[in-house]
Amino acid sequence: MLSLGIILLALPSLPVNASESNELDTLSLTSFNPDGDGLDWYVQNDNVMGGRSVGGFEIASGQLIFSGDTNTDGGGFSSIRTQPLKLDLSAYAGIRVKVKADGRRYTWQLQTNARWRGRQVNYWADFDTLANETSVIDIPFTNFFPQFRGFKLDGFELDTSQITEFGLYQYDKTDGPFELRLISVEAYMEIKQP
Question: In terms of residue numbers, what domain contains 25?
Answer without folding.
Answer: 18-190
